[in-house]
UniProtKB/TrEMBL annotation:
Record key words, sorted: ATP-binding, Cell membrane, Kinase, Membrane, Nucleotide-binding, Phosphoprotein, Transferase, Two-component regulatory system
Gene Ontology biological process terms from the UniProt entry: cellular response to phosphate starvation
EC number(s) from the headed UniProt entry: 2.7.13.3
Molecular function per GO: ATP binding; phosphoprotein phosphatase activity; phosphorelay sensor kinase activity
Matching SMART domains: HATPase_c, HisKA
Location within or outside the cell: Cell membrane
Highest taxon listed in the record's lineage: Bacteria
Reactions mediated catalytically: ATP + protein L-histidine = ADP + protein N-phospho-L-histidine
GO CC annotation terms, alphabetical: plasma membrane
Keyword ATP-binding: yes
Name this polypeptide is given: histidine kinase
Amino acid sequence: MKRLTLIITTVFSLLFILYSFLFAYNANEVVQVTVQQETQESMRDTVHSVERITKNLTAEDVVNNSSAWFDAQQEIMNTLNPMERVSIYDANHKEVLSFGNKLLANIPFTEAGKQALDKNLSFTEFENEEDMTTYEYTGLIKNKNHQPIASIRVLRNVNDITEAQNRLLIVSVGGSVVMVLILLAILSYYFKKIAQPIYSISDVVGRLSKSDYSIRYNQLGVAEIDELGDDINDLASNLSRQDIQISMQEERLQLLMDYLVVGVLMIDKKHRIKVANKAAYSIFDLDDNVINHKYEEVLTGYRLLQMIETCYSTKENVNDEVYLYYPKELILDVNILYVPKKANVSGISEQVVVLAYDITEIRRLEKVRSDFIANASHELKTPVTALKGFTETLLDGALEDEDTAREFVEIMNREANRLGFLINDILDLAKIEQDQLGHRSETVQLNRVIAEVVHSLEIPASENQVEVHYDNNLEAGIRFTTEEMRLKQILTNLINNAIKYNKAEGGQVWISSTVTEDDKYVVIAIRDNGLGIPDEDIPRIFERFYRVDKTRSTASGGTGLGLSIVRNLVASMSGKIDVVSELDEGSTFTVYLPKNDKKLLETEADDSLSADSE
């Protein structure tokens, strides 16, 4: 403690003295610079005043001593600073005017000042014969046409401030020494007083470092140290609580690991499994005693073992899709992560972490999508095959039998209609995405359109036990210009989704509409209290065939195209769509449509002109 007291006192004293010296030194510099700047500014003002007075003169006026030059001399002398000496020279450097401070009358030119007579203004500082600091300002003065009319020289003495600067330095340093001596006496007394409480605090901290969180500091009458002791007591209480929290967090972490759907294995440098969660036990069909066994002994699958070995040898992360055939067939998305040893963490060497995600179901659903495309192709092929078969039969002679021919033609007609409907559906989807559908705008009563859509979805809403809320006042509400067919298709898809992906019981759907403050957009919001959408899926829900929950979407009859169609329809109507969702709380889809779509109105006008021309 004594050593600490001595060190603190010495360092503080030296710093205080050094600070005082630096302060005095910088103050002297500031004073000197300030004096120089103010003097230079004053001399510059004098030159500018002369230029202002002589702005209408020429060099000939000065040489010929014209009446205008005589009047200017009088005005210049009236504005002169008595501390300065002003001399004016004609083009031949002959002095034509000199007045002001007589003490400066016989001071010769400096070399820099002499050279600056025919140049721009130059400022020079020098010591005169009387050891006084003199400032010299020389250069050309010009008239308003920027033509040189004469040269000017301004001189000014500056009082020596060195003595004042020295006094300031002595006072600053001397005062700081006195203050340090007083401070030393105070600190000596104070440190003696606080030594015992500090020893007590040191003992408490030592006990805390050994995880004895029951120890507490008892106050000894020194307010500042007692406050610190109270803080240490609070720290002990916090450490005790944190110890409990750490234990709880370890339990939560273990719980999280146990319920992760991703299988996690942590393998040490010696290839021994150190950590395995429940998903890993399930995916790899592990025994209960795999901990501390080498992974080569418990894992199967040549590619999986090869990836782990590659990660060890290259010290780089490895990712691949792995097929397991024993003990059960699985498709895994496997990431092998190399974790190097950290220099500041003791007891933990380099490790490899195996993350295995079962994507068997995902691949199955992708196959379902492929099957969907194949089925669509088959549906196209079926009517074409039928048409071709019956056509060939008719050409081979069936035309002679009127009854048979009629039957065949009727079948061909049905198949042709079926083919046409199927092709139209596919083309409509393509046209929506490419904005090739015709635009037919009309004035729409929004509440009526919403009511019609809700009415068309009463059966699925009833089957899903979902209650739909909307404004059924068909005489009120918003009227705006848009495409009713597309608007209905948008509302049908969104409301149908809100019904299908809602709670099993107590599902609610709210439909509201309003107009933006600038009266440019109609805003339609469809909100539900259903299953919600995970944050990571929201950016992709408008992609074709993308489903948040593949199994859920399949069970509800979804194709993965509904929201993609909605997005393209809204875009084709010069609008936009936003979604806000919280998992297990519900989703809100908000559609913004122009209140008066100029694009639609122009298209409608073009259609009318085309019809008139026909």
